[in-house]
Amino acid sequence: MNEFRKDFQPMQGRFLDRAGKAARDENTYWTPIVVTKKEIDAEVERLASLPQPANGRREALIVHPLAAADAPGFAPGIQVKLSVLKPGEKTAAFRHNATEVNFCIGGSGHALVAGRRIAFSQYDVWNHPSYAIYRHVNDGRDLQVRLTYSNVPLLQHMQIYLPEDEPSAELRPVDDAEEKAASRDPRRKSPYGMIRIGAEGGMLMPYEILINPQTVESKPLHFPWKEVKRELDKLEALGKDYVGRRLYMMYNPVTGRTNGVTPNFFATITIRPPKIVDRPHRHVSAADIPWSRATATNGRRETSCSPLPAGRCTITPRMTTMSTNSRFRISRSTSTWSRCCGRRT
């Protein structure tokens, strides 16, 4: 038996009678919760007090009370991880099949992602593609603190999450001369190619095309806060005559029309001058909102009048009506994450 073969106990499927049943919403809507700055600071202090682990990763997950034990997320499809590195420390190499968006909330350092060195400082954002080997290094003078958002709980729920500690090498396409020669064998290709079916545009795709789709490379992308903030300040300078949304999306061209920063996440950043209140809205994404100056969620108002470093972390569930009055905001979806602050720092 090889590593790809598994033994299973015999089981029997069943039929579930749905005859005449009316369609209804059977979703569980997670209660909005707040993780305060005091709680985050205490956890950062606790992590920093620990002896350095063998893998170098001082980490803690921020978990919603309704999260399943085998998929500990802050929202049904979002994992939020708090990570701490002391000056001079680094983590061991790691990879997994999740995509990540990283946000430095304290200190500085650099990340090595898929062979690229990304030097970051406070409030920078960068992504990790799926299966890219990465490690973090604190080459600064201060404690490095990061929040990492990923789709790990979604993969765990589907039973397809694959993490790997200290992988030996990056994944590369196999260059097999024998396989290449076999692929050129005309007997392996359907003589009919792609076949149109019907007048609406449907097609039949042969097996050899199905299993060999065009490769689309996803690269690590870095959004330095200094550059992003410069563009946001231009939006603020437009004045009261501009009535559109002062918003930019952190766009990864690999995602095409799905408008993502990774194939799984959508990220936007917004600036709102004083006394401009966001129009209430809702969506099927969840939202994580760190450092919100004033946020109203289904009539429940959470307020923090402190600047960005003195904020908090809020989770709002899917299909919840939400409005904000805040200076900076980042949102992410299919799962959504947000960053807000009360005033310029």
Describe this structure in words.
By secondary structure, the protein is an alpha+beta fold. The protein has one domain: Jelly Rolls, CATH 2.60.120. It contains five helices and 23 strands. It has helices at residues 37-49, 152-157, 177-183, 207-210, 225-236; strands at residues 33-35, 58-62, 79-85, 94-96, 100-106, 109-113, 116-120, 125-128, 134-137, 144-150, 163-165, 195-197, 202-204, 222-223, 247-249, 267-271, 287-290, 294-297, 300-303, 313-316, 322-324, 328-332, 336-337. Mean pLDDT is 82; it is low at 292-311, 319-327 and 333-345.
Key words describing this protein structure:
about 350 residues, alpha+beta, Jelly Rolls, 6-stranded antiparallel sheet, 4-stranded mixed sheet, 5 helices, 23 strands, about 10% helix, disordered C terminus
